[in-house]
Amino acid sequence: MPDARSFSGEFAAADLTGLFRHQLEACRLAEGEECLCITDTAWNPAIAAACLTAALSLGANAHVLTFPASRAITERALASALAGADLIIYMSGFTLHYRPEVRAALARGARVLCVMQPVHVLQRLNADADVRRRAMAGAERLSAARRIKITSQAGTDLTMDKSGRPGLAAYGFADQPGHLDFWGGGMVQAAQIEGTTEGRLVLDVGDVCFMLARFVESPVEILFERGRVTAINGGLDAKLIRHCLDAAGDEGATLAGHMAWGVDRRARWLAPILDTPDQGGGGADSEAYLGNIQIEIGSNDDVIFGGKNRSAGHMGLCLLGANLWLDGEAIITDGRFVPPDLQ
C-alpha cells in the first residue's frame, strides 16, 4: 500500500481547498487584496483551482494565470501579470524565483510563495508557527555571523565566509512584505561569499543527494579550493555527482553556492524512498529535516540569496549528524541544536 494518495482528478480541488486556505491565512491574505495564482499547462490544475477557491473564500480578488509549459515566459508577459499583485502564488515548473520581474515585485512589497512539492508533502509540511520561530531565530544568528565552519565524524572539515550577506529564514509561507518562501521549506540559509569555501566535504552512508533522490551508499569526498570543487572521490555516488555537475555545461556548476540547516521536526529523512505516488518528494523533506546541514553546489543568484554565481547546476547535498559553528560558537553538534532558542 502506498504511504499517500495522489490528488490528480478533476474534483481534487474539493479536498485541497481547506489546505490552501490554511496556508493563505498564514500568508496574511486579507480581504480586498490582489492574489495572483500562476500555473502552467503541465501542472495539476486541481492545485490552482484549490488556491483560487481558498483565496476567494478569504475575500481576496483572486485570479489564475496559466502559461504554456512548452514556451519560455516572456519578460513583458510576466511583468504585466505581476503588476499590482499583493500575494503571488506560483505552482509551476518555471523557476520564477530567478526572474528579475519577481525581484521587482518583492521590492515593491509583494509576498511570493512557491508551491512545487507533491500534495502529500504540502499536507504534512504546512504552515507551522514553531517552524517559523526556529527559522527566524536561526536567521538572526546567521545574519550576524561572518565565518561558518562545518565538520563531521566522517571527515568533513569546511570553512566559508558570508560577511555582509543575510541569513535567510525559510518557513513555508509568505507573511511579510518583500518575503519569498517555499511551501514545505523549513531552513536557515545563506549564500557564502564566492571563492571562500575551503576544505573537505565527506558525504557519509545515508546522507542525501536530493537532486538525484538518492541516499549515499558509500562515502564521497568532495574537495574545495577557493570556492570551487577540485576533486570528487568515491564510488558510484561520486560518479553520479560528477556527471550531474558536468551535465550543467557551465563553469559555475562546480562553485559552492549556499549552505543551510533544517528546522522542521515534521520532515522525513526517508521521504525520497517512501512508497508514495510521487517518488522523490521534491527535496523539501531533505532540506528541512531538523538539524541536517546542507551544502549546495551551483547557482546562488536567485532573488533572495544575493549571490553572484549563475549556473544551470544546483546540487543539494544534505548531511546527518554533522557539526556547525558560527564565528566559533557551536550551533549544531552531532545534528542537535546547542543554543536554547534554536531547540
Task: Quickly describe the structure.
The protein has helices spanning 13-26, 45-57, 75-82, 100-107, 119-124, 129-144, 236-248, 284-288; strands at 34-40, 61-67, 87-91, 111-114, 147-151, 157-161, 168-170, 180-182, 187-190, 198-203, 208-209, 214-215, 220-225, 228-233, 256-262, 293-298, 314-319, 323-326, 329-333, 336-337. The chain is α+β, with helices and mostly antiparallel strands and 343 residues long.
Features:
eight-stranded antiparallel beta sheet; alpha+beta; 343 residues; 2 domains; 8 helices; single chain; Rossmann fold; seven-stranded antiparallel beta sheet
Residue-averaged pLDDT:
94
* Overall structural domain count: 2
The Rg value, from CA coordinates, equals: 20 Å
Strand count, sense and barrel status of the largest sheet are: 8 strands, antiparallel
Could you tell me how far the N terminus lies from the C terminus, measured between alpha carbons in angstroms?
35 Å
Q: Strand arrangement, largest sheet?
A: 14-13-10-6-5-18-19-20
- Percent strand equals 25-35%
**Class per helix and strand makeup:** alpha+beta
Shape, principal axes of CA atoms = globular
Poorly predicted ranges (pLDDT <50, ≥5 residues)? Answer: none
Percent of residues in helices comes to 10-25%
Helix count, per DSSP? 8
Order of helices and strands: HEHEHEHEHHEEEEEEEEEEHEHEEEEE
